[in-house]
## 1
Amino acid sequence: MPLKQFFQLYKKYIFAIGIIILIFCCIYTFSLSSDKRLKSEYNKILLDLQGSANSDKDSLTACKKMLELAEKDYTPAQRFVGKYYKNKGNFAQFEYWLTKAAEQGDTIAAVHLGVCYSYGTCVKKNYSKAFYWYIKAAKQGVAIAQFNLGLCYEKGEGTQQDFSKAVYWYEKAAEQGYAYAQCNLGVCYEKGLGEQQDFSKAVYWYEKAAEQGYANAQCNLGVCYEKGLGEQQDFSKAVYWYEKAAEQGYANAQFNLGMCYGKGEGIQQDFSKAVYWYTKAAEQGLAEAQCNLGYSYSNGQGITQDHSKAVYWYTKAAEQGLAIAQSNLGTYYDKGKGITQDYSKAIYWYTKAAEQGYVGAQFNIGLFYYKGKSKNDDAFTNYSKAIYWLSRAADQGDKDAIKILRANGVKKAR
């Protein structure tokens, strides 16, 4: 090709490139200008609404104006319109406008939709859709979406359960300082879920979340110090973190703090304070605390002895399936303390606990049948059941059960 012809083609090429760049710049400038204008209009509508009486009429007027911006694909306006319809109970329109915003990459809308689908709030519960929107926002670096995505992988909601991927997304959110993710990541390291068990790393992440005031992490950190997991055992530090979480109303920490006061570990023994914290946790429905509170009332430990209240709290815990509470409740019905004596109910609760392998209940129900207290079974049946349950207790090393069995010539006894 002649040199002159080459330069002519080159000039045309450069000119074409220049035109394309110019067009792109014009479009980009127009887009920025348009976005700036839409944002200005959006802010004005918000200011007008804030300056009004904020009545239903004012909200409707604002929504109509926002609707114009929403139809121009301005995502904050789409979210506003969606929220308006949500408040009015029009969930179909709420879902429509939030989806419109999320489809344009609005991460706030995407996360909001994900949460709604996760819990069935305003929309039909759909874990697959929740997962879809979480991953959209998570890939854009939104910490709460990364955390929620981790939850999906951990629980197998909307996707196949995968602890390794759960850890991956928890870590992404944790590194951004998201306390919930830091705590969950700590749990994964503590239990060896998706990662090799590492108590030191568990403590590291619990501490990160605990320092932000997250009660769950504070309690977990307290457990690590109490048991010497990843850190040297230190009851004083355990108490410190339990107290932090307990004061926020976290039931597990309240129970654990009560245990520390009851045992005098990391703090001076004080049964009345133990009862105080057991009560706090028990009132939130924590079975272990309800059982310990029942024990405190039963023995007058830290509080005036009251068998009827002991029965009340043992019942609360027993109904949640706590074996020791079921056994203790059976004893109360057996003895008729704090409640009318009722052998059938004693058998019922002993059996519930015994079937869970609780050795005390196995011995008690075995002894119950051995002594022939039940009027509903003949002597043979009583003896058969006695041998069965006493043997179960003996298998766990109960010396009294072994003694009775040997006295009756049962070779199965140790």
Note: The mean pLDDT is 91.
## 2
Amino acid sequence: MIGVIGGGIAGLTAAHAAQSRGHEVGVFESDTQVGGRFAPVRTASDAVLPRQPPGLSTAGAASQALARTLGVELDAHAARTGYYHDGVVYPVDRRRELLAFPPLSLRDTSYFRSLVDDGGVPPFTVPDDALEEPESLADVTARSFVTEHATESVYEQAIEPLLSARFGDAPDRVSALWLVNRVTRQRTGSTEVVEPRSLVDALARSIGRDRLHTDCRVTAVGTRRGAVDHLVTIEDGARTEHDVDAVIFDTPPQRLARLTGDDWGGQTAATTTVCVGLDEPLLSIDRVTVVDETPIGRLVALPGPTGGVEQALYAIVADESGKRETESQVRHGIESLFPDFDPGTIEWSVVHTETTPVPAVDYTEHVVPQDGTEPSGCFYAGGASRERYADRSLDAAVRTGQAVGKLVAGRTE
């Protein structure tokens, strides 16, 4: 059996790829649901929502092809983006809207206008001639890249808040490659949000529910003669050993290090996401980056999932120091941003925390290779893999999962 530790998109895709090549698989997920950051959570009103909001990304070739293979369609809808500045939410998707964004000078706005006319996507679009060798940007800071192609004020007023919202106190160390990946994903089509739930459900059905071990914690990776031999799990309070021929990790790098005894020295950022159900909409724009000094870096609004809830609002806090914001702190943060907000409109709330690698300029030194993890027989498809480190898109997770699943299947034939 090929064991897969972690039931995120990459882990499920890897399991599906290996199973499609005739291998028995078992997925071991410590949470109660598979899907990783997109796993469904049930609210107090029985509404079902993703643990974290899906990101801005057009459905790429890999995820579309996988969806067709599984007989499902990826649900995608256009998204409106904006910035919160001095108590006002400014949309920035259209040229005339960008002109009204106060922090940018006329020079910067004119620069953006030409980019938008050429099919670019604000607040920053990468010139084509800068993308000939994108991997060469891995050791260039986003700040130096933006100031070279635009201005210092563009970075400080538009790009730095974007980076801080995702990586906390580390914006000036973030690699330009992450920024380029984000922007070029948007340039391939309209600004969209792709809902991965149908893909998660289809992968789970294809693999087989009996092969998905949820609420199951892997406590040890057993070896024999230097190669992986079994997994030790705790499920329903019982300790079980599962014989395995290979193991695929779709986990944070810290967990990989704990289970294999390896070292990992990359930077991480802790993220706290609080989703509240509102009986009155607060935002008319789907995704808002907060420019002002406040713990909340991003706000994401989704349509209300059930009757009586008009809007599901995700408030997201990122902090490189690893501090966890409490639910009450985040809710007070929403009130401070919107003084007219009535807390009485909150019907329920859900909290999720996670730690992710920061794609800093030295991140290539901390990439975990797909097949280079000790002991022998261990493979990696998690967030510190080469492709996913600087690209958190759905397509990057699918491509990584497929590549690792094929690799393991070939090695264990």
Note: Confidence is low (pLDDT under 50) at residues 114-121.
## 3
Amino acid sequence: MKYGGRLLTSTLLGLASLNIFAAEELAGFSKDSLQPDEAGLWMVVDKQEQSIRTSSILVDDPALNQYVSDILCSLTGESCSYLRAYIIRAPGLNAFMMPNGAFFIQSGLLLRVSNSSELAAVIGHEASHYFRNHTIDRFRSTNRTGNTFAVLGALVSAASTVSINSATSYESLSRSVDLSGTAVAMLQTAQIVAALQLLDYSRDQESEADIDSVSWMSTTPYDPTASTDLWQGVMDEQAAGGESAGFSILATHPTPSARLDALRKEISKFPPKLSSATSESDATLKSLVNSHRDEWLSDEMDALDSDQFEFLMAKQVENGYPQYKASYLVGLSFLNKAEKATSKKDKRENFSRAAEVFMQGIESGGLDVQPEIFRDLGKAYEANDMQPEAKAAYARYIEVAPDAWDAKFIKRKI
């Protein structure tokens, strides 16, 4: 298949074989069958879905959107007709399914999946939450604890102010970075997630979603073992970020070691898959994401702490991203962190780290290295009072980019 999505026919992927509810049994598929509390939630998320569909945050890439939709349909069979997949430009590893069947996957997640099987694992997991009405169940549980209006209020208020930052929590959104005109739309998405975060899933619901996802993947060429690889990678990235780690799917989908062990046990019930079964699909996914990778990584750089971003970029390099480009972005992250630091010690350490990473990029990039890396290396040296090194870096910048927009200004520093 060109996009690697519908790897099996809908006949093979009928709902009976998937062991999920039949379409007519699925609460929420018809507005006419909704209970009053469901109808209220449906009305709100319908409105927000329409808003996002016309916003600048929506990734306008028919091929990539079709790829994601095809995987969703290959896992859910004929019930795919109830679902709609959207890709949104938002940093951080996250995906979520609204109670009305709208599935949103963030660009940050697409950056982090290594292959189509890892992507299928997330999609299957989220689809299970929808088919099993987990969001509705949590909504009703929240109603009993008196937080219903907090949920609806957060959803309804998704209409204005700054932008999304994949920050420590969504409470810190007001301090996030403006991403080139997408601020309001990105905040709307963030507030929807923040509201649904109040409906975090129970341990049993997570287990059900894990089992469903593994079971569905076992009937396709996708490898269920990829789910443990993905979750482990998420945990490792969060650990790298420490207390400053950005928001991720772990906020609503906790992944303790016991859960990973249970997931591996479930996977062991099925015969192993050949990685070659999805090789074409994996290559297609990588190619589709590559057309957006630089832009999306810039969003991640703005959103993540430098240590977590450095971990993310190391993984990008493992998957084929050029080292010199990764080093430049990591260096910029530490440079920005240094400029925002309040103590002299933190400033000096981060400027030094920025210079170190910039040099790594220069050494690995050779003639392909971007000219700006020399200019920014000069900034890092100059900030740490290393004037000879700074002048040498600035001179190299002028040598390779004599017509740069800021050349006249930089020449004054040499």
Note: The chain has 18 helices and three strands.
